[in-house]
Amino acid sequence: MNYDLIVIGSGPGGYVAAIRASQLGMNVAVVERAELGGICLNWGCIPTKSLLKSAQVLEYTRHAADYGVKVENAEADFNAIIARSRGVADKMSKGIQYLFKKNNITVIEGTGKLTADKQVEVTNAAGEKTLYEAKHIILATGARSRQLPNIPQDGKRIIGYRQALTLDHRPASMVVVGSGAIGSELAYFYNAMGTKVLLVEFMPNVLPVEDEEVSKQIGRSFKKAGIDVMVKSSVESVDTTGELLKVNIKNKKGEIEVHEAEIVLSAVGISPNVENIGLEELHIEMERGRVKVDEYYRTNVEGVYAIGDIVGGPALAHVASAEAICCVEHIAGLHVEPIDYSNIPGCTYVTPEVASVGLNEAKAKEAGYEVKIGKFPFTASGKASAAGANDGFVKLIFNAADDTLLGAHMVGMNVTEIIAEMVLARKAKTKAHDIIKAIHPHPTMSEAVMEAASAAYDEVIHL
Fold first, then answer.
1. Element holding 438 (H helix, E strand)
2. Which residue among 88, 289, 451, 457 is least crowded, i.e. fewest CB within 10 A of its CB?
């Protein structure tokens, strides 16, 4: 029952921590109360992308004539699409099982909790409790859908993202509350399936954390696709007494509008799973509802660490994985470079896709930078034209003082694959002309990066 490391939670933070620790010679156990892979693999990133791929294929068939292809009577089999998504998630979860066996990691099924003497108490499905000891314990318990008091989720008619992935039928109508990545992706999916979707956002634009030009482009794309969008609006309450839900929405004028819908999807963020894991028993310090850690994810209690959605960084799978590796390598005594949270890419997998890293235009100017901005629209891209995907652009923001890249903001086909070039450019402190002079293959969507950099310095060829 003694281990070098016990990880509580097997999401993209927990399972990566366990595998890296095993690679470094530690005897590792992982405590998991549900499916291996956590929310991201089973109820978030992976199954959502499966649904979105089905929606994209359906959209292709609807526009097949634009490509000179005749497709007749194409329709969505909603239950088959959901089943495919669950199959993809199950396959990936089995992949984690394989990796754990390969790396000799012990899986302890049940709910883990720290005890006052820094052991891990695991309660299994039968209610039986077992104590385990480890030199080091990593908390990686993740998060769940955030509940709003005025929109209480019942899991059936007022739902969170988890239920949205497994509905047993396609709803005729849906109000999606919140237009962050989760809300926007699910709004796009259900609209593509034929559901009448109303997307409600409190801020002035959808995807409000993105550069304003990107947000406005996505707003236009949503409306073009048939999604109704209300910005500067808020859901005040939901009347559940009738056959259809009556959703009371305060619009931008401050007036109450009543919209009927079969389903309300609340996508207003997440809440960290910090309850009942022993934080109080060990007097672990908290900060704004999350576990307080240092740059190596140490809590104030020696030997106890925390990573992922329960700490203060961005709630993204790739961030949790990076934190896991940083934490474990530091435990192992390796020289570790702390994570640069200013260089974290964000991606939203709607159509067209959205990807960004670094400062947006407004924040760069607020920070006092004199900037050079280059923008290249995909209407001028040969690859985008050939693919029939001209919506969007690449926008690069450079520091005029030293020509380094402050931020990159993209909307368009496959930009979630292109953004990594910009992350590397920022990490390496690459100069604008290094990007301009790096030969990009033709024809590709990635050429837009070179062209946008060229535009910032009045060297662009294809505009």
1. none
2. 289
* pLDDT average, residue stretch 221-247: 96
Distance CA 300, CA 285 (A): 6
184-201 per-position pLDDT tens digit: 999 999 999 999 999 999
Q: Considering 63, 283, 433, 442, which one is annotated as catalytic?
A: 442
> What are 57-114's pLDDT values in tens digits?
999 999 999 999 999 988 999 999 999 999 999 999 999 999 999 999 999 999 999 9
Q: What are phi and psi of 238, to 5 degrees?
A: -130, 125
Q: Is 442 a catalytic residue?
A: yes
Residues 6+ apart with CB under 8 A from 254: none
**Cβ distance 273 to 248 under 8 Å?**
no
Task: Classify 27 in phi/psi space as left (phi over 0), alpha (psi -120 to 50) or beta.
Answer: beta
One-character DSSP codes across 75-123: ---HHHHHHHHHHHHHHHHHHHHHHHHHTTPEEEESEEEE-TTS-EEEE
**First vs last Cα of the chain: how many Å apart?**
66
* Tokens 């239950």 sit on residue: 79
Cβ-proximal residues to 320 (8 Å cutoff; 6+ apart), any chain: 11, 12, 13, 16, 40, 140, 307, 308, 309
Distance CA 145, CA 304 (A): 26
Share of the chain above pLDDT 90, in %: 95
Q: In 3D, which of 271, 48, 38, 43 has the Cα closest to residue 140?
A: 38
Q: What pLDDT score was predicted for residue 418?
A: 97
Cα(19)–Cα(102) distance, integer angstroms: 9
For residues 244 and 93, give the distance between their C-alpha atoms in angstroms, rounded to a whole number: 37
Q: What is the sign of the dihedral through the CA atoms of 171, 172, 178 and 183?
A: positive
CA gap 437, 428 in Å, rounded: 16
Cα distances from 20 to residues 294, 346, 373, 390, in angstroms, run: 20, 24, 40, 42
Residue (of 28, 165, 160, 19) closest to 107 by Cα position: 28
Q: How confident is the model at residue 43 (pLDDT cuts 50, 70, 90)?
A: confident
Residue 430 has pLDDT above 80, yes or no: yes
